[in-house]
Design goal:
Length: about 425
């Protein structure tokens, strides 16, 4: 034995988080064991014709973790490093996310091992259409509904919907969400993750008695979630003191203008050196003295190593899995309020649910209606999680897991075992 410790995989972390909470809940052992496993885990390999005439064999995954409360729901990521294990973890997190905000879906996730940055649009389209056929037995508007995730987008959802609909001979927009607006996409979906996160920050600030226009905010990651969260918070009067991307960060103690930083990023490819800002590293941004830190980039950013030095009062997890279980305990002991990912970034899947509802009833809402319904769900869910955390004297993540796991276990129990 070398005694070396390897980092835990995403699935090991997902199971660790689940076990820590499930064993304290009043759930029978059969149901508790059932929820540790994906219901369906498909691995497929299929040929794709490349532009130069060669054929590439591509591996893809679709995992449905649980469908006790409704059809599976979760994104598909296209990434060269995606693994079956990671997709299983993400599918499980989707089950808890849908349950914590009370939308009637189970959890699922998909992945295709490929590098879309090195592929033509034609190659991505052929890969997407063939992958859709390979998993077509598993997906469907009442079975499992994919959505965009890392390196997939509205166009890819359009191809999934078209392939599925063409094969069935029926227009079936409810088979995927995150579609373009002309094909049944929902108004407000693009901003939904950031908007939902901002609703939770407003509730946290209210709870802590800090007015929004006194908040100093740092945002890690300046993509869909991070850049939109920064501009919505700026519009609320918050001072955005630092933002970052994969190349580094931009700091301005007096507060920066998120729209100007976005324009700079569009021009130069990065937020670094935006006018009136100083360089700050991603590591230093996480340790800045601020009221709210919004991690909106990658997993495993807040760890046992940097958590003791962090000075934010609130961490609002727009990203999935930015905080390790060890860091969670450290932040809890320091009195930091962590709004966990399954709550803080659930706005995206919530508006995906609205998109699916609109597709099924073939009647479409205004953006104001979508945002109003989102605010209601986020505020209600935040209050339920905070109440549970205070009653049980646990951190917000464990409180969110307690609510979510109890809801899924109750549904599974009520459905019983077939046959
Ligand atoms: P995105 O690709 O639009 O943006 C990601 C940003 O992170 C980019 O600015 C990138 O430069 C930055 N980044 C990459 N590596 C970094 C590093 N090492 N340090 C700092 N920044 C880095 O992605 P997104 O859709 O905004 O997703 C961000 C996170 O939010 C992910 O964890 C994703 O799973 C989560 N999330 C997104 C949605 C959604 O609807 N977009 C929903 C739920 C959760």
């Amino acid at each position: 034995m070398s005694g070396e410790t390897r980092p835990k995989s995403a699935y090991e972390i997902a199971l660790q988080q689940y076990d820590a909470v499930a064993e304290k809940l009043d759930i029978d052992s059969g149901t508790r064991e059932l929820l540790r496993h994906p219901k369906t885990a498909l691995e497929v390999a299929f040929p794709v014709r490349m532009d130069d005439g060669t054929v590439k064999v591509v591996t893809g995954y679709r995992v449905i973790h649980n469908t006790a409360r409704g059809p599976g729901k979760g994104g598909i990521r296209y990434h060269p490093a995606v693994t079956f294990d990671e997709v299983k973890a993400l599918a499980m997190w989707m089950t808890w996310k849908c349950a914590v905000v009370g939308i009637p879906f189970g959890g699922a996730k998909g992945g295709v091992v490929c590098n879309p940055k090195e592929m033509s649009q034609g190659e991505i389209e052929r890969l997407t259409r063939r992958f859709t056929i390979e998993i077509s037995g598993a997906i469907g508007p009442h079975r499992d509904i994919p959505a965009p995730d890392v390196y997939t987008n509205a166009q890819i959802m359009a191809w999934i919907m078209d392939t599925y609909s063409t094969n069935r001979g029926e227009f079936t927009p409810g088979v995927a969400t995150g579609k373009p607006i002309p094909l049944g996409g929902s108004l407000g979906r693009n901003e939904a993750t950031a908007r939902g996160c901002v609703f939770t920050i407003r509730q946290a600030a209210k709870h802590l008695g800090i007015p929004m226009d006194r908040l100093r905010v740092a945002v890690q990651g300046y993509g869909n979630a991070g850049s939109i969260a920064a501009s919505l918070l700026h519009a609320d009067g918050c001072k955005i003191i630092a933002v970052s991307d994969s190349k580094g960060g931009a700091y301005c103690g007096k507060g920066l203008d998120p729209a100007k930083v976005l324009a700079h990023k569009k021009l130069t490819g990065s937020v670094v050196e935006a006018e009136g800002t100083e360089f700050i590293s991603n590591a230093d941004l996480l340790e800045l003295e601020c009221d709210v830190l919004v991690p909106a980039a990658l997993e495993n950013q807040i760890t046992a190593d940097n958590a003791p030095r962090m000075r934010a009062k609130v961490v609002a997890e727009a990203a999935n899995g930015p905080t390790t279980p060890e860091a969670d305990d450290i932040l809890f002991d320091k009195g930091v309020m962590v709004i966990p990912d399954i709550l803080a970034n659930a706005g995206g899947v919530t508006v995906s649910y609205f998109e699916w509802v609109q597709n099924l009833m073939v009647y479409y809402w205004t953006e104001e209606e979508v945002n109003g319904k989102l605010e209601h769900i986020m505020n209600h869910s935040f209050a339920a999680v905070l109440d549970m955390a205070e009653k049980k004297k646990v951190h917000m993540r464990n409180a969110a897991y307690m609510l979510a796991i109890s809801r899924v276990a109750e549904a599974a129990k009520l459905r019983g075992i077939y046959p």
